[in-house]
Specification:
Structural class of chain A: mainly beta
Largest sheet of chain B: 6 strands, mixed
Strand content of chain A: over 45%
Number of strands of chain B: 11
Order of helices and strands of chain B: EEEEEEEEEEE
Shape of chain B: globular
Oligomer: heterodimer
Strand content of chain B: over 45%
Shape of chain A: globular
Distance between the termini of chain A: 37 Å
C-alpha cells in the first residue's frame, strides 16, 4: 500500500514569511496527526484529526499555526508568520485502528 | 501530562553485540508503548510495540520488556548489524495506538562493523 505522502520535502523561508505543508494520508485512515521534530529531539504532537474533526490541538501554537483537514482526507499545516524557532521537520502520520504510519517529513529552515 | 525519558542518547556497539535502550514514563495510565526507528531523511518507522497487559514481546532479534510497577520499558537488539544504525525513539500513550503519542528524546545507535 502507498505510504503517507508529504510535500514539499524541503522549504527555506525568511522569518515573518508564511509557509504551508501538505499531507496525504494512507487511504482509509481516519486519524491524521501533525508532529514537529526539532533537531536532536523526539517528535512532538501538534494536532490530531479524526476524520475532519480536531481531537487534540493543545500543543499547537494557535497564534501562528493553523491546520485543516477538509473532507477528512488531505491536510494542510500553515505557519504565519514564521519564527526562527520554527525550524524543524514537520511530520505527518496517519492511523487506522493500530499503529501510526509516518510520512518522510518536510524540513523547514527559517532564516 | 505524560513525560518520557530515554537513555542513553548515543550508543556505540560492535557488530554482533547486543544493544539496550531504556525509557521511563510518568503517567501510570499509559498502556501502549511503541518503539520507532528513524533513518536519516525518513520518518519514524514502528519496529515493535507492547501493551501494558504484557511483560515482554519478541520479534526475531528485537525484544521489548515492560515493568509497569517501575514505569519503565526497554528495547533489546541482539546480534546487531550495521543496518541497525539509526535513531531509535520510545513513546507512550493512553489507550490504543491511535491516541496521542509522547516520545522520548531518542537514542542514536551506531553499529561498528
Amino acid at each position: 500500500e502507498a505510504g503517507v505522502a508529504q510535500s514539499p520535502r524541503y522549504k527555506i523561508i525568511e522569518k515573518r514569511q508564511s509557509v504551508a505543508f501538505w499531507c496525504n494520508p494512507i487511504s482509509g485512515h481516519a486519524t491524521l496527526y501533525w508532529y514537529q521534530q526539532i533537531l536532536g529531539q523526539g517528535p512532538k504532537l501538534l494536532i490530531q484529526f479524526q476524520n475532519n474533526g480536531v481531537v487534540d490541538d493543545s500543543q499547537l501554537p494557535k497564534d501562528r499555526f493553523s491546520a485543516e483537514r477538509l473532507k477528512g482526507v488531505d491536510s494542510t499545516l500553515k505557519i504565519q508568520p514564521a519564527k526562527l524557532e520554527d525550524s524543524a521537520v514537520y511530520l505527518c502520520a496517519s492511523s487506522g485502528f493500530n499503529e501510526q504510519f509516518f510520512g518522510p517529513g518536510t524540513r523547514l529552515t527559517v532564516l | 501530562g505524560e513525560n518520557v525519558e530515554q537513555h542513553p542518547s548515543t550508543l556505540s556497539v560492535q557488530e554482533g553485540d547486543s544493544a539496550v535502550i531504556k525509557c521511563t514514563y510518568s503517567d501510570s495510565a499509559s498502556n501502549y508503548f511503541p518503539w520507532y526507528k528513524q533513518e536519516l531523511g525518513k520518518g519514524p518507522q514502528l519496529i515493535i510495540d507492547i501493551r501494558s497487559n504484557v511483560g515482554e514481546k519478541k520479534d526475531q532479534r528485537i525484544a521489548v520488556t515492560l515493568n509497569k510497577t517501575a514505569k519503565h520499558f526497554s528495547l533489546h537488539i541482539t546480534e546487531t548489524q550495521p543496518e541497525d544504525s539509526a535513531v531509535y525513539f520510545c513513546a507512550a500513550s493512553i489507550g490504543n495506538a491511535g491516541n496521542m503519542l509522547t516520545f522520548g528524546g531518542g537514542t542514536r545507535l551506531m553499529v561498528k562493523p
